Structure formats: C-alpha cells, structure tokens
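## Example pair
The file below holds two records. Each record gives the amino-acid sequence first, followed by its structure token line.
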Amino acid sequence: QVQLVESGGGLVQAGGSLKLSCAASGRTISSSAMGWFRQAPGKEREFVGTISANGANTNYADSVKGRFTISRDNAKNTLYLQMNSLTPEDTAVYYCATSTKYGFSLPITTIGYDYWGQGTQVTVSS
C-alpha cells in the first residue's frame, strides 16, 4: 500500500505560480512512474503530466506544456509540480498518482495508475 498526500495548493492570481508537493509513504516510489492529474467541477479528471521512475523522462498535456514542470526526489519519496503563468482555466483539484505497473513508460491515462492522493485545490483568480 502507498499513501500519497498532496500539499501546496491555494489561491493565486492569474500569472502567478504555485508549487505542489506529493509525499509518498508506505513504500518507495523510486521504481514507479508518477503523474499529476486535475479535475475541475463538472469535468472529467484529466492528465497534466507524468515522470519516469528515474526522473529522466517527462510528458505533459498540451495545455500545460511550457508552463508546468514535474520533478521528483526519490530520496525524499516526493513528487513535485511547479506551475507558472497560471490562468483561471488551471483552477481544479490536483491529484498525484503512482503506478505499480510502469517505471520507465509514461502513462497518460488514469488506468495506468494504482494509488492516488486525496487532492489539493488550486484556484486561480482573474
């Protein structure tokens, strides 16, 4: 079992930045691909980005490419999401997830992940 806890969400003005963290416990994440997803009210949960087990490879949704950066510190069992140039369209609950099936592949759908955090709210005001 893996427990994931996100933090760092909040209210920010358009154009601002936030950095989300996702702390894992229960088992090491160093061999697991990890991802960020988000869900806005009334919408499906959507892919934001993913990072390979060793951190060498990443993939992002087109909507966040160039603005968001995923990173990880396996020594701290922690995943990060740096979000810059935020817009109101980025408002959502952000979830981190870990995969027991993929390490160096980069799953971009929810089915590729096994464990999820409880989410952290990000609200961007215009």
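Second record, same layout:
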Amino acid sequence: QVQLVESGGGLVQAGGSLTLSCAASEGTFDPYAMGWFRQAPEMEREFVAAISWIGSSALTTYANSVKGRFTISRPNAKNLLSLQMNSLKPEDTAVYYCAARNSAAGRLSISDTYDYWGQGTQVTVSS
C-alpha cells in the first residue's frame, strides 16, 4: 500500500507564503491524478486543488477560494506533489491533506474518488 507523506506546514502571518510537499513511499508510484484537500476545525474536508496527467500534459483545477493564490505542481519524481501558497489568509488555516487516485472517473474535486491519503500537515495563518 502506497503511503503519502506531507511536509512544509507551519505558522505564517497573513500575506505570507508556504510551500507544501507530498512524497510517496514507492518511487514508482504514478497515479492518474493528485490533489490537495483541507479541513478546518469543525468543518468538512474541502477541495483545494488537483492535477491530472495525460501523457506529458498536465491539467490543473482549483477551488475558487484559492484561485490566483495557490499553485499545484509536480516538481520531480521524488516529490510527487507540491502546493505553493501565496497571499495566505487566516481562513486558509486548516490541516492540509495530499491525496492520489488511479482512476480517471469522477470529478477531481470529489474526495471520495481518491484512493490514497496522507496524514495531513497543519497550516496556521495568523492575522
């Protein structure tokens, strides 16, 4: 079973930046799509961003709340996924989860379509 491990969370002031990374326990892991979700206290888990690959082409999609501020990408084979977060706001405070799926079926924003999940990394934005 592939394990995903997030890193890069922390405490930052509003307006600041953080970069989250996600690595897989298996170097040959090659999912169809990966995404970031987040969950704030007493809130449901929500979609943040996702990226899918068809051949050498990558397709990205973002939640409206982060569009223009966050960038999802795949840096290299070791670090499967990253999330560059700029202009952070207090409402971005949450535990951020990396997820991966092998199937192309279903919308990338739906958490139930993902097969693998990380343990999460805390992001706290102070005002």
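Notes on the second record: The mean pLDDT is 93. The radius of gyration is 14 Å.
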